[in-house]
Specification:
Butyryl-CoA Dehydrogenase, subunit A, domain 3; oxidoreductase (chains A, B); AcylCoA_DH/ox_N_sf (chains A, B); flavoprotein (chains A, B); 23 helices; 3 domains; fatty acid binding (chains A, B); alpha+beta; FAD (chains A, B); about 10% strand; about 650 residues; binds flavin-adenine dinucleotide; Butyryl-CoA Dehydrogenase, subunit A, domain 2; homodimer
Amino acid sequence: MDYLGAERKKAEFDVEDMKIVWAGSIHAHQLSDRISKLVANDPAFRKDDRTMLARKELFKNTLRKATYAWKLINELQLSEEEASKVRFYVDEPAFTDLHWGMFVPAIKGQGTDEQQKKWLSLSYKMKIIGCYAQTELGHGSNVQGLETTATFDPKTDEFIIDSPTLTSSKWWPGGLGKVSTHAVVYARLITGGQDYGVHGFIVQLRSLEDHNPLPGITVGDIGMKFGNGAYNTMDNGVLRFDHVRIPRDQMLMRVSQVTREGKFIESDVPRQLLYGTMVYVRKTIVMDASYALSKAVCIATRYSAVRRQFGSQNGGPETQVIDYKTQQSRLFPLLASAYAFRFVGEWLSWLYTDVTQRLQAKDYSTLPEAHACTAGLKSLTTTATADGIEECRKLCGGHGYLCTSGLPELYAVYVPACTYEGDNIVLMLQVARFLMKTVSQLGSGKQPVGTIAYMKRIEHLMQSHSDVQKPQDWLKPSSVLEAFEARAARMSVACAKNLSKFSNQEEGFAQLSADLVEAAVAHCQLIVVSKFIEKLQQDIPGNGVKQQLEVLSGVYSLFLLHKHQGDFLATGCITPKQASLANEQLRALYSKVRPNAISLVDSFNYTDHFLGSILGRYDGNVYPNLYEAAWKDPLNDSVVPDGYHDYIRPLLKQQLVPAKL
Amino acid sequence: MDYLGAERKKAEFDVEDMKIVWAGSIHAHQLSDRISKLVANDPAFRKDDRTMLARKELFKNTLRKATYAWKLINELQLSEEEASKVRFYVDEPAFTDLHWGMFVPAIKGQGTDEQQKKWLSLSYKMKIIGCYAQTELGHGSNVQGLETTATFDPKTDEFIIDSPTLTSSKWWPGGLGKVSTHAVVYARLITGGQDYGVHGFIVQLRSLEDHNPLPGITVGDIGMKFGNGAYNTMDNGVLRFDHVRIPRDQMLMRVSQVTREGKFIESDVPRQLLYGTMVYVRKTIVMDASYALSKAVCIATRYSAVRRQFGSQNGGPETQVIDYKTQQSRLFPLLASAYAFRFVGEWLSWLYTDVTQRLQAKDYSTLPEAHACTAGLKSLTTTATADGIEECRKLCGGHGYLCTSGLPELYAVYVPACTYEGDNIVLMLQVARFLMKTVSQLGSGKQPVGTIAYMKRIEHLMQSHSDVQKPQDWLKPSSVLEAFEARAARMSVACAKNLSKFSNQEEGFAQLSADLVEAAVAHCQLIVVSKFIEKLQQDIPGNGVKQQLEVLSGVYSLFLLHKHQGDFLATGCITPKQASLANEQLRALYSKVRPNAISLVDSFNYTDHFLGSILGRYDGNVYPNLYEAAWKDPLNDSVVPDGYHDYIRPLLKQQLVPAKL
Ligand SMILES: Cc1cc2nc3c(=O)[nH]c(=O)nc-3n(C[C@H](O)[C@H](O)[C@H](O)COP(=O)(O)OP(=O)(O)OC[C@H]3O[C@@H](n4cnc5c(N)ncnc54)[C@H](O)[C@@H]3O)c2cc1C
Ligand SMILES: Cc1cc2nc3c(=O)[nH]c(=O)nc-3n(C[C@H](O)[C@H](O)[C@H](O)COP(=O)(O)OP(=O)(O)OC[C@H]3O[C@@H](n4cnc5c(N)ncnc54)[C@H](O)[C@@H]3O)c2cc1C
């Protein structure tokens, strides 16, 4: 029985068409659909027991799944694209993520052709398993401060990799703790007694015969992380080197080399090339944000339509909680955000192609902008997604706190995205630096490009007044864009003005950094708002599809405007009256989302397996399934619990003295 | 070695005196100090392994600790106050929390003298163990919608307790799943064929001889909840009744009774009496918020002083991350919030005494205000605390994601406080209702009392202008109060105006509920701000103590003002210029907090055991301890992991076909 059938009938658009928009293309939709069902229908990928397993069992089970998936990929002769979708839908962090997502790209990006030939062919067949060992116990954000050393020994033509201090222990790399045979290790290159800063080296860690760590290597897992199940399927590791020797040709030498004699040479390939990889990785993270948020939103939306509380009249059914405006005002902006992040991710794919082509043509002019933009979007989308998942969990009331809701694990497994690949605050400070540089160069003839191009119109933006006079005026993309551009520009200019009061710019930047982060956030929100609007300028086929997306785009921007109205008002971009009109329009948009809500989350096309949530079941049949699942908890193995005779009974019987305590 | 010694020397106030302020009195300080050390020094209460244990082991261990603690309490003949501190410092959710915190108070509040005599004497000795069974699978927030029935059978003078539907299964009660012998069960009272709404009944669930469920009772645990360790030490349970009979005198009959003949009588004791218990429970929750937040802040503050990243000059040490203004602007408001919540909690204790005395004198005039105020403060402080704990975790970068940081478990165990004892949004809507009622009665001669008394000055507040002209003006309590009062009053009045446009008030309330929640939040923030200011009007002894608290009070209010500047600007309470002056003053206050930060968290007087965090260690010796703790993870039991032969080796050796998968 489809408990949500009535909801589905309300939709004012064609769900099948929206699925294609969400996936990005017909091809992508068909691929996702096929692979997600393949995974969902294979009992080997069952994950409903994950949160109940103790660490060792959990981890062993992940090894099984990863190996089984690899077998499947080989047997079915899946393409690279298909294989990565298999890993995606298996939905369990594993060493393979780092092997494919960091080790292979690092070699591709930083290895010479020869190195690529050798190491990639081994990696592609998984004859070796690699990880990415950068962070140390004492250094994460400050990569230049890493302490591990790679000292060239000209006598033997080798590097000696060493961990000179406790804090130089590698700490955090995924896949390192128990599985990887190799790692790309970042270490300070020392040759001829001189320190040439941090470079990457391929180091074998474990024997390919018996998996024991090689001499001089101490390696293990760093222990339990946030949540049950979640990221504990991953063996984030600790690693110490005691003068481990590797051949010279295992330094990744695409951008700099050490010769047989120990001479350090910077190659003519510019370091900027490495930025390409960074844009790629961050694009993936933004995409992942939209997937994680959409999962949470799908669960909370379906359950909000199933859950009824209060408002029963004459013994009729109670009100679905999705009909409460407070519920809508918390949930629908997240639904809109999921779509917004999806489209900005799509745009980042375009940006990556663009950057790659420019790099090949040795055009480095757009790199600073692309770098700031991806850093900012990574920070913005991961923070909003982590917070959004928790909000979705709370939207499910008490039942959201149960692991069977899927939401606790989703949060715990997602939230480190705010920290890895750049701490979100540190990244926003980078954006702020770029903004201050842009402002300082205005009028110097250097034209701002890409997502910062609006700064060209700075004079206009500093003094413009919003033309909004009635709620519906806030539906005009031009009015929304103008307000967001003016806010971002004015916040940047205000910071720049305050900065100029300091004689020491670095000191000023440090003192004002909290304000600078706010300006950077305003800039990044503008990017997301504008990319959503740009998406709607494209041709989007499907009955009612574009109209729905227009509503969501409005919800996304007006929700942000309301949430940050302090910025808009303080900078005088809009008046209190206009802020209140925006809020009124926002409320009207929520009512438009309401009948389409279930179909908008159906459009993500997620299987029940992928969602992993009883509250988010497609059929809405929540209660009997919650009830049944409860009995599977290990505590229910026996009616009278372990510990009754030792503890509970002596307590009740007032016989504590002889009790074994 | 004390790595934080240099930090401690910087303090500009007397830490020992601040400890007394934090504890509330010399007596309370000495008691806390003694009991916390007693618990910390007893290896039976070790908790560092908690996040690694599988459910059954974890739970059994909790039974052991709870029983051991009870033994200790008896052997040492501890007072009730001391005993509750023991449970507090053991710091592990257990059935005893519900027994002492809900079962006993429910009987006290709702039982007749006779019932109290019988059941409390059993309970005080723990000859029976009780829980509080209200929530059902289908009903939480809407208590009046509960489905469990208690039908009076005049033939046998018994009630028949029954679960007529699946959704009427009791679901969530702590201590129910595996331990409780008894429960206070909320059920619809039916007598003479008529439904008299929800009442409480004492029901025995399990045999006192062998702990088996009594006939007609199905009971079990509802399964894993958010996080490892955390609330999984608690047996939240499911319970179904199949026509279970209990004697008539097990209905809690203080406010209403059923006679031998089955006649329902509302006693002359007014239902409002029950509000007293609610004020008590919520006061405790607000206190707990300050404890949980202060723990998180203590960990993040100490670690922020230990952690160094970037900014090394000439090979000197890097910058302590606590010196970054972004770190301060995230951390110090939380430090200030911990103190703010502590003081508002203290004030709530006074309120509880006041309410109790008034109830005894049959003065019910302040009850609606007290009820709204405690509902709002519960909502405000628990939301801020849950978010604050997560922020503290993120402030610790990657290492905050490790369970050994203590923060993941602290978050997971704390966050349901946003949901239980009233969903935080539902509570804010109650506050909003009270606000709208107050506004509508202004001018009717009915004088607003207590925390809403500022509404008496509504005419002034609607048109006042802040007199702030320079940053320091924001240090004047009167200027701060005036701004917060004006903002709260104007937001309420604006909502009331919008409401009046609706012909149907209920419909209007529903439509505007998101705005109403914002107005309620503004009102509740004002309460916390004003109680902090009132606290500072008292005599506070100790060198520099009061000065520090004044700084924190300023941080708390100006941080809120900055965060919600949209409200202040939209309502015209302050100008953009004044908002910017507030921000400037806030920045100056952060610099004043900085040298005192470590000592301000030392003043909480938490033992390392209670904190349960390597990052938050008193001695700051973080890295060697993180490193050592890692090796205790079960995955490190063997160098080569379980699963190597079955999965990793076949993968590496390309021998997947014969692998057992
Ligand atoms: C689940 C997970 C997986 C990971 N996987 C890998 C992996 O595979 N390989 C790998 O090498 N690493 C990995 N990491 C490590 C990760 O990259 C780092 O944790 C991350 O870069 C953050 O650095 P940190 O931990 O040193 O934080 P810190 O820099 O110590 O941050 C602590 C606080 O200081 C603040 N701060 C730091 N610098 C500044 C500044 N200049 N200005 C203002 N504030 C500042 C931060 O905002 C933060 O609040 C992983 C981490 C996690 C949690
Ligand atoms: C860890 C934990 C321990 C607990 N312990 C106990 C216990 O010992 N005994 C016991 O009896 N219960 C217990 N509970 C249950 C708890 O009291 C309920 O979960 C709580 O009251 C919330 O109710 P709900 O789950 O029905 O949420 P719901 O009411 O279903 O909330 C779902 C969503 O609907 C929204 N909503 C609901 N009504 C309205 C409305 N009128 N207007 C606007 N929005 C609305 C909420 O804001 C929320 O977003 C516990 C719960 C937890 C998580």
